[in-house]
Amino acid sequence: MSKLDPMKDLLRNRSATLGLALIALIVIVALIGPALAPYNPLIPSPLDRLKGPSFAHFFGTDSLGRDILSRVIYGSRISLAIGLISVTISLVPGTLLGLLAGYFGGKLDSLIMRLMDVLLAFPAILLAIFITAILGPSLPHTMIAVGIVYIPHYARIVRSSVLSLREQLFIQAIGHLGGSHSRIIRGHILPNSLPPIIVYATLGMGMAVLQAAALGFLGLGAQPPQPEWGAMLSEGRQYIQLAPHVAAFPGAAILFLVLGFNLFGDGLRDALDPSLRSL
Amino acid sequence: MTMPDTILSAEQLTKHYPLRGAGFSRRTGIVRAVEEVSLGVRKGEVFGLVGESGCGKSTLGRVLLRLEEPTAGKVFFAGGNLGEFGKVRLKQFRREAQIIYQDPYSALNPRKQIGHLIEEPLVIHRVGTSKERRERVAWLLKVVGLLPEQGPRYPHEFSGGQRQRIVIARALALNPKLLLADEPVSALDVSIQAQIINLLKELQAEFHLTYIFISHDLSVVEYIADRVAVMYLGRIVELGLKKEFYAAPVHPYSQALLSAAPNPDPTARRQRIILTGDVPSPINPPSGCPFHPRCRERQNICSEELPLLKELAPGHSVACHLR
Amino acid sequence: MEPVLEIKGLKTQFQSKGGLLTAVDGLDLSVGKGETLGLVGESGCGKSVTALSILQLLPKPAGRIAAGQILFEGRDLVKMSAAEIRRIRGNEISMIFQEPMTCLNPVYTVGFQIQEVLRKHRQMSKREAVSETVSMLGLVGIPEPAARIDDYPHQLSGGMRQRIMIAMALSCHPKIMIADEPTTALDVTIQAQILDLIGRLKEEIGMSVLLITHDLGVVAEICRQVVVMYAGKMVESADVKELFAAPAHPYTVGLFKSLPKIGGKEGALSPIPGVVPSLLHLPAGCAFHDRCFKSKPKCAEEPLWREIRPGHKVRCWEPEL
Predict the structure, then answer these.
(1) What's phi and psi for B194, nearest 5 deg?
(2) Distance CA B259, CA B276 (A)
(3) Distance in angstroms (rounded) separating the CA atoms of residues A227 and A30
(4) pLDDT tens, residue by residue, A200-228
(5) Does A179 contact chain B (CB < 8 Å)?
(6) Is C6 an interface residue toward B (CB < 8 Å)?
């Protein structure tokens, strides 16, 4: 019965529901959009270059005559993939490191957190550029780079959660009953640490997409002719005055995705916070 | 101290915590939580431990059950040296000695069903099959006055008193011999306290349990305890049978403590002993007798020499130069 | 003589996710000059909410006073503006709370916090405020007061902090002090000191006290009148000796029976069965009837508040007589 409560609270929150709707829209577009896209997103069509929005091309065409709507549709898959994969790459090691550091403390904690501090000292974008420069520019490498950049964030969140949980009576009680560290971490600390992780992951999806878009903007992410929204934005830069629609639509798509995840993530945080729960 | 029916005993038990200075991890002091405590808990009795904040009673309880390692001294359980128990023996000890906590609101994992919480000790120690465990949980719920059907519910669905019952059920799951009850009713409403105290008494009789009962509430301790030990600044200052203690406390601190307890009788105009000053901190305990700065009867010797616990009458010991 | 504080028919409600909650329903009480009245009950009975209502300290917008009057020397506090109440708060009516640490600002010295009150309400100059602060600290029994005024709250013990709160509360010589569980968080020997202090100060400056507590022992110590509350309603009101000698409402009777007393007789305690009902799901009629040992069908109807002996009022169809 209690597990349903967060969902109810969530749906009562209007901005969270809006966020969920935006996410759902993008997911649906990613799943079935490509079947419905009117044009092939990759084939250039020199005769139709830089045409403004019309009935033939709802979002207009880009500098190579490709239909922007179709490219945005295909790009949704890429962006969602970026979000999911990057977040997973951050979350799994980050959570593990945070759990170990927070639970065992002492030298292990210092070691892990110093390492995390080193990673955090670099501005995210710089670090991402560095990693992609080493690995070579491509979309998978971008995802890895963005993933690595955010590991310390998860580690910190989880560690802080674990530190406060460790002192809780119900955690100590398991030790008093004869439970092992492994049982405590797996069975009690991890489940109670999940809410902040879930919330951060939701917000992290948006952040990852933005980072990838920035890298794509710099030419380090998806390589042409992949229709990644950030790369499209970059390409549209040159035509801002002449044909603003080339940058506007991919930009708007990024906006909606990030907005959707942010609103949903905020709402999720409130819904999972037991102190805000209804009587 | 090792009479045949002693289940747990302590010898010169001491627990100090180092204080860290902010930022530089340099020791700036020591919290002397428990100092040279020796006592013996008899099988089947309720051993009451009273005192005010900072006296060390909770710490003593934790060290007695080896939830924390002592700085010095020994604890013996069923004849064996608790400090020397290896991993296996220690895990077995956890089946024999359990704890009931003060705060029922934070002693239960809010994300687990209470049935699972009560079952957990059985799972940890691999007791019984899944079916047998479920049956035991249902039985335990009944024993503490709850309904077996409430097993799938979550802690926040229960009141404070009911949560404390769940804590008790969990503590009983492995059939312990000894229960450490650390302020088990302090966080509960007055009318619920009585329910839980009665429950604890019934359980003691039915399962032949031994209790170490820690409380700051003297009226509750008088009700349930067989013997009472008074602590002040980490030391035991008086120890005796309940009836004798409450009828005629000997140590000046015990006398002040009993006289300070508010009496629900407006017609009783007692001569109250009002102590001056605060309860001092265990970081800088006074020299000699820890109580002397607040004692009305103090003499020179009290600030110079630490009084030791000596037996004044059979079963009644006091640590005071003036008695 | 006019009472210092008179509450008539107070009804305080909260808007919660589960619905409209009536935390205080129809409370009447009256505190005379120099008198101490105890407001007694367990969690959820509405006693703390009453204290907050008096000084318009209810959390907004969830809480509001739905009905009733709170007359302070004849003036209705419910109808006052925020500015008018601010002039009275801390000045003519002061309040002390259960947890002294959370009520003192940790980044200011205790001396500063008392001086702040003095300068605001009594318009003192800095020098006058300092000197008055030192004498207030001395009055509440803080040793070396001149040195203590530069201490921060965390440097002092719980007992000292509560004394500081009392000093702050007394600094403007209020006509009435509302004390919400002032000693619950303190050790027994410190509690004795604080109660003794409140008693002496009452005598010295003629202050009235509204003491809110669940501890019947404390009530017996310093109160003259007692009002017992349950689930938002008052259920019994009497002089303290009368109440302790002959409690009439079954809840009060049950409370006394469930208290372990030092020197009391052996045998099992008789707890009150069941739990306090949620204020959102109160039973019809008397809120206590499903836990009551003498519940009758008539109890499904709200009992009337009536006087069974001079000065002793009860809300029950079958009070113990």
Answers:
(1) -60, -40
(2) 14
(3) 13
(4) 898 888 888 888 888 877 777 777 788 88
(5) yes
(6) no
